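USER:
I would value a second opinion on how I read folds in token form. Give me a protein, with the fold worked out from its sequence. Write it directly below this note and I will take it from there.

ASSISTANT:
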Amino acid sequence: MKFTDGQWLTREGVQTSYAKQIVDTRLEDGRLTLFAAVRSVEHRGHTLNSPLLTVECWSPAEGVIGVRTTHHAGGSGPAAGFPLNLQEGHGAAATRDGSVVELSAGPLVLRVDTALPWRLEFLSGSRLLTAAGSRGTGFATVADGTHHMLAQLSLGVGDLVYGLGERFTPFTRNGQSVDIWQADGGTASEQAYKNIPFHLTNRGYGVFVNHPGRVSYEVGSEAVGQVQFSVEDQSLEYFVVQGEDPRQVLDRYTALTGRPALPPAWSFGLWLSTSFTTGYDEETVGRFVRGMADRDIPLSVFHFDCFWMRPYQWCDFTWDPQVFPDPGGMLRRLKERGLRVCVWINPYIGQKSPLFAEAAREGHLLRRPDGGVWQWDMWQAGMALVDFTSPAARRWYAGKLRALVDQGVDCFKTDFGERVPTDVLWYDGSDPEQMHNHYTQLYNRTVFEVLEQVRGEGDAVLFARSATTGGQQFPVHWGGDCESTFEAMAESLRGGLSLGLSGFGFWSHDIGGFEGTPTPALFKRWVQFGLLSSHSRLHGSGSYRVPWHYDEEAVSVTRDFTRLKHRLMPYLFQAARQARERGVPVMRAMLLEFPEDPACHTLDRQYMLGDDLLVAPVLSADGTVEYYVPAGEWTHVLTGERIGGPGWRRDRFGFDSLPLLARPGSVVPFGARDEHPVYDWADGVTLRVHAPADGMETVTEIPAPDGSTAATFHTRCSNGTVTVRTDDAPGEWHVLLAGAAASGDRARKAGPGIRAGASAGTRELVLRLPE
């Protein structure tokens, strides 16, 4: 929200007040409280008839400092905020040296000179990260009488801003106005399904605004050298999060707001959907499943979209008996084929649903202030919302889902949760404006907990569309309704990278696009992208996404890249463990891996998949792709070609390939099987070593599908030899010097590189690099 009219004026009807002078300071128990007048106080008379801001500063964790500014404290109170994980006893200290007071939280220091005009400085060591200056702390009232707390934090030369949720607008937020407000706006607008009041910078810090309602951002827009954020409230709380690099910032942010759960290994395989409004029944489902098997395309999950239930009755959690007369038998037959089953749900109850009367009678539906049930006719006729602030409503809803899980359903696509009204009365008295964004957290938590309770921890997964802060704890999230165009494919990727920089570890998208029908070329390119994402689903709106509906080459591309993903499972699941343990996403903006390379700071058409694989999806019909290669000698995974960086490349690829490059010196484990994502990844594993440099030492952990570590390998390059050692490999294992010519008695040419094998019990392999 903009309050000013250029540099000098305020907008019509707006009155602003900013902290100008500190009139008192308190230091106690690692906390710092500043009392700031909004005018210069030169004598006692100036203390009258003027606001005084209370600015509380403290540290909830190492490298994190919180600031809460309050104007009037006696109203409804400050925003409830999000649940946070606080570190006890991490050593925050408040000190005074003359007029200077400091609050230190490990490497992050807040410095204030109380003798000077208002200025909060956040430093990492001696380096200034950002500051709240003359307009950095204050409030504004506008013509409609509303009161807004605001803050401004400075941007330095070259500072770039990312995140704020899954946003499809330009990748860097600089110059944008962003409202943190849930909306069902597709992927082609400034609206977003997943709004997160956290922004990350390329300068060693991020900022989290702890307010569950609307947060209005002006990112280098209203004031081009500032990030401004404001809330309609009497109090504003934010946290500055420091890190030596962007990955550490995400680590600290997700430690504060919640780490993602580890999705089950089977969820990383290919999902196939009925699509949305297409005609389908059990015969259609069976035909699709058999068609995939007949074409040797491994399938892991079959998804039933909305019309598994009767029209006008979403959600009643009951299979349409005319379309699926034997749902239990159908699910059993799918399970016999080794498939998992996902069904679509949302948090709404249509009036025609038998559950509507039941839920209304029991008080489980959201109500208007006059006590009547809130309803409208969008989406489902007369639909109402389940009030998840009520424990009884949550138990009631969970019971309906538990019956489906008992029937054989493995997971749920939790659609919607964005269009939440504000003219309502919540069961627990929650502020309607704040609950608009927070509703999705209660919804997804309710569903996820059902799956964890019934299936056990580690076997729960959602396919969720909406999210707020903390939603990363309940993976997986997908990108919503995109069109079937290359432009939409690019905007989807931007959204996914933005979400990853907002603390979410797992993300997917509709392969082929949702609205419309993709051309064969688009479908094949999107298949490559989709199967090199953390999760992969074929889904559309009015047309099917089975590959043989496009052409025979689409079948080959789908088969080959599905099987490639299965072989990459030991690598991908290790990246998933990193997301669970440190909050770093599986699909990473180049900035996360190469923060010292300025060329990587704005890249939004390529990404790192885990630590070591660079992926540049082909976003053109003729196969042309422009991509940036960071410094070093990279190896094309599919061809073995060596590619030197740093520099830009413009190449053209057939549908059997795309830029998929392994990082110099990386050791990427490939599993021995490709027919399913779940198997013993350590047994028969091949360690692909890429362009090792003398002195290189690497530790490679091979996970097990249950999330434990199955084997650990140590790779060292010295004096022209590569030595790989292990003490716990459970079976055969192999080493491939990828891209190298054959050389040495124990090595043999096997594809693009030199291969050596070890039988069970072998502890060490030594390969000589070719001259």
